[in-house]
Design brief:
alpha/beta, Nucleotidyltransferase, domain 5, 2 domains, 5-stranded mixed beta sheet, extended
Length: 231
């Protein structure tokens, strides 16, 4: 009973046992019941699962150029369909600049209630006030715990492995152009395991009768899309 009902305490189990004809002392139940390591409150993973339809996440991707200039790519990701709502590039990410990016990510009002982010000082008072005024409930992950923001961290990993690790970034304009092309591929062509092998923007499965397979180059030839077209 204690394994199947981790929220139950010893008195609750004593009461339930009495209903099936088992009379036992509370101290005996406390001695033998399984003590789960999970907290009684919902876990972080449960929070993400329960609010996946109305939550989004933000984070920065740090990139070094060929001349050792450090650039920052700001990303806003909606959890429900892994949709990238907004991105921008800067060499000087201030709280005011970051707040403006949040506004541009949601130009038609809120599509999410919770906005996940880390505790970086970039998200200063100006940013926090703007986010509150927009109606968001800001959710901060624990220090040095990127696993608590897994969806945007996975996006950042994909951008690195599938794009930026394969090229040399020249400057901010070059980075913005490359990331824009990759995110277009990410939205419309790249299949995702979490979406049952669909894309963030639904991609129709084509029947064999549609014609022969055509290969289309994407992201400067780093990736390809395959479609059937009539001869």
């Amino acid at each position: 009973m204690s394994s199947a009902n981790p929220l139950w305490g010893a008195p609750r189990i004593v009461g339930e046992l009495s209903k099936i004809g088992v009379d036992v002392a509370k101290s005996t139940v406390e001695k033998y019941m399984v003590h789960s390591r999970k907290p009684p409150s919902p876990t972080w993973r449960a929070f993400l699962k329960n609010h996946i339809q109305n939550s989004a996440a933000i984070d920065f991707l740090i990139v070094s150029t060929v001349r050792d200039q450090t650039l920052f790519v700001f990303l806003v990701l909606a959890h429900d369909r892994r949709r990238v709502l907004h991105f921008n590039v800067t060499s000087n990410p201030t709280a005011a600049w970051t707040a403006q990016q949040a506004v541009e990510a949601f130009p038609w009002g809120l599509s999410s209630k919770y906005l996940l982010g880390d505790r970086d000082r970039i998200y200063g008072d100006v940013y926090k006030k703007r986010v509150r005024d927009m109606g968001f409930e800001e959710v901060l992950i624990a220090p040095r715990s990127p696993w608590q923001n897994p969806f945007v961290e996975r996006l950042i990993g994909s951008i690195r492995r599938e794009c930026l690790d394969q090229i040399v970034v020249l400057n901010d304009r070059h980075l913005r152009r490359v990331v824009s092309k990759y995110l277009d591929y990410y939205r419309h062509s790249r299949t995702h395991l979490a979406l049952d092998m669909d894309c963030p923007e639904h991609r129709e499965a084509q029947e064999v009768s549609r014609g022969r397979v055509i290969e289309a180059s994407e992201v400067g030839g780093l990736h390809h899309r395959y479609e059937r077209r009539a001869a």
